[in-house]
Specification:
The complex is a heterodimer of chains A (273) and B (93). Chain A is 51% helix and 12% strand. By secondary structure, chain A is of the alpha/beta class. The chains are: A alpha/beta (273), B mainly alpha (93).
């Protein structure tokens, strides 16, 4: 009974958080973006400010979600995210992990699905922050290359979409191609979630039985030099690198599954009769 | 003129060259390269690979091959047909 109440509370709280997210997006579009246009002349500086603003807002959003008991998070080796000019890749089990990663990095470029560029709540901040759209195809690689060579960090989800639970991990070759063309190393991030929620097939109100716990671990950078040296055909190098990245993630995610399941007992005891 | 010489290419020759390129460039298993094999779904050729392939075909045919001409291409057989048709048309400068 109390567990059900707790779940109902989290449905309400999730709805509240997402409404705040939408309102925040509109406020940024209607107030912050025009102010930035007015007072910041240089487009590059403006984009940097916009990215910082998005990052801060996302941090506040996560704080809100933690505050109302919808989610908790744990970050390992966060400092590894701070290196400029690196490609950061990650698996993508839930929609919230993007928000968390951007919250952890004050300035980062990111490839975002075109539908979010068009969305009235997210489009304004996304365009102001100069996030790239995934429709560009081959041109996208050169846009990413430019961003990395200017020393920006770039966040890419190599699956190109959210991870489908229970399906084999399917990495596209875009991320490997970006790293190889730009000549930058890859910082792999592994995200583990305690519950499957907010995947492509979940609606927002399908909250899990228990609070969602997210563990973000930033791993050692992967050097791309061996791939560049081994093969001067970048198409083949990208295939090999993608295969290796896939094995890397499969190993990470399998190892995580074999750990004792996230221990909810202590947390739940408070709510049990 | 290579362009002129290559207008004599038959579909079989184009197919043979294409197969060899796919194997060389992308390590695709020759057994999978069939006329009705779909490029994206069956052969795992993405948009970036397609650009490389078009450049390769331009060098091979000496014809003015542009990526737009491959918009409707879905299968290996489609590529052969597009290249063949291109070579049949008189080259406009």
């Amino acid at each position: 009974m109390i567990l059900r109440l707790w779940q109902c509370w989290r449905v309400l709280a999730t709805g509240f958080c997402f409404s705040m997210f939408g309102i925040g997006g509109l406020l940024i579009t209607l107030i912050a973006v025009p102010l930035l246009r007015l007072f910041v002349r240089s487009p590059i500086t403006r984009k940097r400010y916009a990215q910082r603003l998005v990052s801060k807002s996302f941090y506040a959003f996560i704080a809100l979600m933690r505050g109302v008991g919808v989610v908790s998070w744990q970050v390992q080796n966060r400092e590894r995210l701070n290196q400029p000019g690196h490609l950061i890749i990650t698996n993508h089990p839930t929609i919230i992990d993007v928000v968390m990663l951007i919250a952890l990095m004050p300035e980062v470029d990111c490839i975002v699905g075109e539908q979010y560029h068009q969305n009235p709540f997210t489009g304004g901040p996304i365009r102001a922050a100069g996030y790239l759209s995934n429709v560009a195809g081959p041109e996208l690689i050169s846009q990413c290359q430019d961003s990395l060579q200017q020393g920006q960090r770039l966040l890419v989800f190599p699956e190109g979409t959210r991870t489908v639970p229970g399906k084999p991990l399917n990495l596209r070759r875009g991320a490997a191609n970006i790293a190889l063309h730009a000549g930058v190393d890859i910082v792999p991030v592994t995200i583990l979630v305690s519950e499957s929620t907010l995947t492509k097939s979940d609606r927002w109100y399908h909250v899990p039985k228990r609070k969602l716990r997210v563990r973000i671990s930033v791993d050692e950078p992967i050097s791309i030099q061996p791939y560049l040296q081994e093969d001067d055909n970048l198409s083949l190098a990208a295939r090999k690198l993608t295969r290796d990245l896939r094995s890397y993630y499969v190993a990470k995610l399998t190892a995580a599954k074999q750990l004792p399941e996230n221990d909810h007992s202590r947390e739940n005891r408070r709510f049990l009769p | 003129m290579t362009g002129e010489a290559n207008t004599m290419l038959t579909k079989d020759q184009i197919q043979a060259h294409l197969s060899a390129s796919l194997v060389d460039m992308f390590e695709i298993d020759p057994a999978n390269i069939q006329p009705d094999a779909r490029l994206y779904e069956d052969l795992d050729i993405d948009s970036l690979d397609a650009v490389d392939l078009v450049i390769q075909l331009r060098d091979f045919t000496g014809a003015k091959v542009r990526p737009e001409q491959f918009k409707e291409v879905r299968t290996v057989g489609d590529i052969v047909n597009v290249v063949y048709d291109l070579l049949q048309q008189p080259q406009t400068a």
